[in-house]
Amino acid sequence: MNRQECRPPWWPENEAWPPRGRSHRWHAGRGRFFRRAAAVAVIVLMLSVCGALALAWLVATRLGLAASSDQRAAVIVVAGGMAGVALAILTLLRVTRRVAIPLGGVMEAADRVAGGDYGVRVTEQGPPPIRALARAFNTMTERLQNHDRLRRDLMADLAHELRTPLTVIQGRLEGLLDGVYPRDAQQLRALLEETHVLSRLVDDLRTLALAESGALKLQKESIDVASLARDAVAAFGGDAAARGVTLDVDAAAGVPPIEIDPVRIREVMTNLLSNALRHTPAGGSVHVRVSESQMPNPESRITVEVHDTGSGMTPEELAHAFDRFYKGTGSRGSGLGLTIAKNLIAAHGGEIHASSEPQRGTTIAFTLPRREL
Length: 373
Known about the structure:
single chain; alpha+beta; Helix Hairpins; Heat Shock Protein 90; five-stranded mixed β-sheet; two-stranded antiparallel ribbon; 10 helices; 58% helix; elongated
């Protein structure tokens, strides 16, 4: 790929690409570095061989194995030294070739990554440590490429999600000013609802950003999860009755309190109940179950299941259920609810998973450890 083609769209037009900063200077001096390193290594090897031969000659002279005036022995020592030096140089050149070429490829690729080309990969060759370095480099660049793609997708999705309520607000305000809509309380309430949508979206994005970066601070306290579930269900009682949906909760006896952030776990339950009610038709039901499950190790977990008899999800929708901004058929939310729920549960050291079949309902269950991990 041409390096000029890797120029990011946000890079200033009046600045050269790729940047000619520290990485460029290192790239230009890389050959000089390897030549100097090889020269130093050759000198060290020559001195080592000569020193070893001189030491051997001194020992042989002291032991009487060779006279100090024995020219033949001196010639043999010198010839052996020269042969040793030549062998050392050949060995060094071979080792340098095996190490320097793959390492140079990694450094070349690193320079391209610094310039914004995350699609570069290096060939795994050379000694095992160099191959391991190349493998780790390829893994790193693959992750950087995926993160860059996710960032671009996130920006596009975010722009789309913000555009919808902003367009509605703008259209209604223009209609009010032009006299298309009456300036009454109903129109003001509609505008207020759209601002609530924007506010919820901004809050969701902030929560998601904090959770994914690991900066979310949990205010933990000892809480009865069963009571928390009953409170969440009670809050949706009126909505369920209006939709003609049966909503109940089943909490096993003796479920012990655990250390959690009640606000965040309540938020998870609210998201799950809201989704379940939204996709359950009149005459259906939403059932919440709280239980304690004993793991193979001494640690036990509290499990909360939300099961509905709604439309369910296809295998493809189920595979992307926890992806940010993903919306299934008929979904009217922002596509962040399950993503946030997954991150909040993970922040507590728990797990969340979903199971569903089309027209047979959906079950989303999450587990919370009784002890901190």
